[in-house]
Amino acid sequence: MLIRPETMGDTWRPRPDGPAKVTGSLPYLTDLVFPNMLIGKVLRSAYPHAELESIDTDEAKRLPGVHAILTHEDVPRMNRFGIVMPDQPVFCEDRVRFVGDAICAVAADTAEIATQALRLVKVVYRPLPVVTNPEAALTEDAPRLHPNGNVLHRAGYRRGKAQDAMADCSVIVEETYETPRQMHAYLETEGGVVVPEEDGSITVYMGTQHGYRDRQQLARILAMPEHAIRIVSSPMGGSFGGKDELNVQPYAALLALATGRPVKIHQTRAESVRSALKRHPMQIHMRTGADANGHILAHQVSIVADTGAYATLGPAVLDFAVEHATGPYRIPNLEIEGVSVFTNNGVSGEFRGFGGNQVTFAVEGQVERLAAKLGIDPWEMRRRNLRHAEDLGPLGQRIAPTDGAAQVLEAIRRSPVWPAQTGAAGPVGVGSGADVGSGSGATGEGLPLGLPWKRRGVGMALAMHGSGLGFGRPDPAGGRLSLMPNGKVEVAFGFEEVGQGLLAVIEQLATSELGCAPEDLCIRIGDTAVVPVSGSTTASRATNVVYQAIRRMKPSWQAEMVAAAARLTGLPAERLRLGPGGVWDSERMGADRPVLSYRSLAQQRSQHLPTAEAHFSFPTTPDAVTGGHYLYTFGAVVAQVEVDLLTGSIEVRRLDQAIAAGPVIHPMGYAGQIEGGGSMALGFTLMEDVPMTEGFYEVGNFDSYLIPTIADVPRTVDVDAIEQLLPGDPFGPRGVGEIGTVAVAPAIAAAVHNACGYVAHRLPISPKEIVQSWGDGTAGIGHL
Amino acid sequence: MTTENPLGNSPYVWRPHTVEEAWAIKQRFGEDACYVAGGTLLQLQWEGGAGKPRHLISLEGIQTLTQIRKSADEEGLVLDIGALCKLGTCKAHPLVVRNWPLLAAACGAVGSPAVRNRATLGGNVANGHGDTLTALLALDGELLWFDENSRTSITTAPVHSMVVSADMDEDIGQSADMDEDIGQSADMNGDSFGRSADTAGPPSPSRLLMGVRLRRESNAAMSGLRHISIFRKLGRRAAFVPSLVTVAASCVQRMDENAGSGQKNTVHATQIDHVRLVVGAIDFAPRRLTAAERLLEGAVPSPDLWHRLHANIMADLNPPDHAFASADYRRLTAANVLVAQLAEACSGFVKEGIQC
């Protein structure tokens, strides 16, 4: 089903928070102002790797307008944070490991005074050799960044005998792929306000992707009980994984407690670039062999991830990359190993796609190369190797049966630009020696503008993407449904609205499942004082949790509501049902109002208002495979590009995606996730990277770190949502927050090759390499 | 903290209503003062860590600088565009679009729509490496200056004088000079409106850019000729991007419509004249490629000519390395784009207009 406004009927409606967001009237947490509020700033390390000899804050403390300056000596309990293993110092004691490491923090009357105070702090460093890349970090004589050395995590998977099976292969392709250090580039930089309350507790108004986990981490740092910390974490101006880990919460909290006053920290973009997480750059070596019929027999993979200075979710990202390194394919012989390595290059961590984007670029590149060598159409090559509905998961674990791979493969053929639709010969595939001068990449479209230096091409790619945190990781889920005294139906989840459209999903599911109208609802999220535990707002899990929770709560809550209404109205319960505005008499549905409004019900009942809660775990594989997933979504992408041979610049003209993720809940939000994810991945493919030199960032702002603008994204993007699940599938809609980003890069890379013969193995794709891939770089004037 | 300024670190903002007033304030505070028009470049520089001046002299209230004035003499059309004219206005102005599409294209290539609603032509010209400067150089534009000597009148100077001294013109490859040029640009602290007209030197407090003058020959003079112009800005994305390479070219070509197949809109490849080829970028001031211009001047297009032009530019152009584009890539793309697009434009299939 193509998602188009005209085919969506009543469900095509704006999200509840949409108008306030696009008009700019919605206040974010970083907009909050409290009486007596101070401004906090954090001093970050001047070096990427150094011993700290001394920190002298005396002069800074004497600056008028300064109210507190804190260092590691002021941290009440654990001077560390980190979701998986708390190894990142809140404040560094004796050593810094990246340029975002915090030395001290100041609270002052104004941002200017706070900045001035930080200038007055005297820090004596003794610079140490900088570990600039993971390969160097793994050598014997590399400086050890952590007590256990420079290996954060190793992961791997084997099946069959890959090395031996290579001997049976007709063709083998071998390539090393490199992916960039992408920045999340959320519009709202990290920040908010921490307010000390009269009872000794604190309220933290700062975005995160898991309020309860922030509370747990902060409790350890502040030596406070968790119940004394309230986290208000919605709405947020974007996160994409980047605000999943703690960022400035500890500093604002410590300063608020030290001064007894509200403290606001809102990082500038430059501060954000310096301190915040990035996507793991990965170097992925693959050796893949197939028989003469195109059946892949063996696949050897080696992944090296640059995880930067601290762990955060680095281990899980690597596990995910290992799991997804085979794509949606049946490969009998596998040998996958990965290592995540500490360096002094910032901190890499959680980012939409979670390691999948990197390995999908690589494995899809391998499939293209094999297809080309064998002379098999790239679509057909994929079909021959595609997983089946009942197959085990990529790590040999049991998964929820799914036909998603075949569904998206079939659907993406219908893209109007795919050769099957244009009647042109199929793309020739990578490495076939396509000659740029021959125009072989034009796929029947010729030279659209009559400009002899332009070439068009199309390419495709597939992706498989697990949702939820994976086996072995606590993945609690839940929600609460209750009638409030004012007659509103409260739907509460411990999730955050990060821009993904969560409120629309909750509204849509609650109204369709419960029968009430959007106006009847009071949606509560993002505030630990009032929401239940739902787990993290990550890993494409929230939509599924909302669906499952409402389905679980609905029977008992509805029954309780109806029973209460029956007692109050004297009508038999069987005749009553919930509807817009209240409880309706099913024999008088034509009436102009319910027999009992929710408000009346709440007022007359007054006590013990109907409430239901759900507590469960996100669906997990029963097999003890660490990190292994159970629910998977699938995506297929067709990209059409136009390459300018004069400059090597690439215009993506079309980016169609077919997605198999179960029923669509909110079509506008669904399409938004896939289109937006596609644009973000387009940036990853064509322009985004944070280069580093000796541990220092080469970019500091969006004037040099470039993300796509509206002029860079295709005007036409078809989103084909495949809603059919296998019969009996009880899990409902899967999330689509990530899948739209995963297969874009390899599809664009294949299209570029198809257009001009250039084979990309590194992202972002280099226009220079495209131009220079024909000797003297003058292919664009070859016609003269 | 210093407490002299009751506004803390915020600069004083002066809002003069006349050029003379603005000029006088600048004389009074010298290096402590900086003209500001749209403020978009200053903002970028401040964000990048540059210090703010003590005094900002806002030119926004000087109405005369916002005007676009057309006049005509026997030689043709003359257009004076006020320095305070917004880039967005300039880009869409009918006279500019019709007669100087190259400048319209350059204005449209700067920043984003929001930036172009604030940023001014004067600011983009006076910063020394703006895209419009590249275009104006190819159009033989003139700059209108208010200076110490003229006080009440205006001095005109060729755009050429803005970017380079005569002896450097021949050699864009003097990288040492260019580095210095860049350094000075960075030190300008946005004081672009007062930049010296004579060299790419430090800001001169004695000059204020009033506007830009463009001329176009009369219809009679252009009889049998057609204008060809090329503008292309290459960055790391499609829009709102610093230039890695900007090229602008302008020439006239004799039309010989009687010869050949006689197809409508088809003219034969004939002699080209008045050739201007310019290359600029975010980090180097635009330069005319005079050797390449001489090669084309009076020549009749042919494959051989275009290949010689390519070789000439490759030998002559020596841009600096940039963090996101090597010197050889910039050289190659400049040569490729100029040659391919000029060849296309001169081949007779494009009657008149601009290729971007």
UniProtKB/TrEMBL annotation, chain A:
<dbReference type="GO" id="GO:0005506">
    <property type="term" value="F:iron ion binding"/>
</dbReference>
<dbReference type="Pfam" id="PF02738">
    <property type="entry name" value="MoCoBD_1"/>
</dbReference>
<dbReference type="InterPro" id="IPR036856">
    <property type="entry name" value="Ald_Oxase/Xan_DH_a/b_sf"/>
</dbReference>
<feature type="domain" description="Aldehyde oxidase/xanthine dehydrogenase a/b hammerhead">
    <location>
        <begin position="23"/>
        <end position="129"/>
    </location>
</feature>
<dbReference type="InterPro" id="IPR037165">
    <property type="entry name" value="AldOxase/xan_DH_Mopterin-bd_sf"/>
</dbReference>
<dbReference type="InterPro" id="IPR016208">
    <property type="entry name" value="Ald_Oxase/xanthine_DH-like"/>
</dbReference>
<dbReference type="InterPro" id="IPR046867">
    <property type="entry name" value="AldOxase/xan_DH_MoCoBD2"/>
</dbReference>
<protein>
    <submittedName>
        <fullName>Xanthine dehydrogenase</fullName>
    </submittedName>
</protein>
<dbReference type="GO" id="GO:0016491">
    <property type="term" value="F:oxidoreductase activity"/>
</dbReference>
<dbReference type="Pfam" id="PF01315">
    <property type="entry name" value="Ald_Xan_dh_C"/>
</dbReference>
<dbReference type="Pfam" id="PF20256">
    <property type="entry name" value="MoCoBD_2"/>
</dbReference>
<dbReference type="InterPro" id="IPR008274">
    <property type="entry name" value="AldOxase/xan_DH_MoCoBD1"/>
</dbReference>
<dbReference type="InterPro" id="IPR000674">
    <property type="entry name" value="Ald_Oxase/Xan_DH_a/b"/>
</dbReference>
<dbReference type="InterPro" id="IPR017609">
    <property type="entry name" value="Xanthine_dehydrogenase_dsu"/>
</dbReference>
UniProtKB/TrEMBL annotation, chain B:
<keyword id="KW-0560">Oxidoreductase</keyword>
<dbReference type="InterPro" id="IPR016166">
    <property type="entry name" value="FAD-bd_PCMH"/>
</dbReference>
<dbReference type="GO" id="GO:0016491">
    <property type="term" value="F:oxidoreductase activity"/>
</dbReference>
<keyword id="KW-0285">Flavoprotein</keyword>
<keyword id="KW-0274">FAD</keyword>
<feature type="region of interest" description="Disordered">
    <location>
        <begin position="186"/>
        <end position="206"/>
    </location>
</feature>
<feature type="domain" description="FAD-binding PCMH-type">
    <location>
        <begin position="5"/>
        <end position="219"/>
    </location>
</feature>
<dbReference type="InterPro" id="IPR036318">
    <property type="entry name" value="FAD-bd_PCMH-like_sf"/>
</dbReference>
<dbReference type="InterPro" id="IPR002346">
    <property type="entry name" value="Mopterin_DH_FAD-bd"/>
</dbReference>
<dbReference type="Pfam" id="PF03450">
    <property type="entry name" value="CO_deh_flav_C"/>
</dbReference>
<dbReference type="InterPro" id="IPR016167">
    <property type="entry name" value="FAD-bd_PCMH_sub1"/>
</dbReference>
<dbReference type="InterPro" id="IPR005107">
    <property type="entry name" value="CO_DH_flav_C"/>
</dbReference>
<dbReference type="InterPro" id="IPR051312">
    <property type="entry name" value="Diverse_Substr_Oxidored"/>
</dbReference>
<protein>
    <recommendedName>
        <fullName>FAD-binding PCMH-type domain-containing protein</fullName>
    </recommendedName>
</protein>
<dbReference type="GO" id="GO:0071949">
    <property type="term" value="F:FAD binding"/>
</dbReference>
<dbReference type="InterPro" id="IPR036683">
    <property type="entry name" value="CO_DH_flav_C_dom_sf"/>
</dbReference>
<dbReference type="Pfam" id="PF00941">
    <property type="entry name" value="FAD_binding_5"/>
</dbReference>
<dbReference type="InterPro" id="IPR016169">
    <property type="entry name" value="FAD-bd_PCMH_sub2"/>
</dbReference>
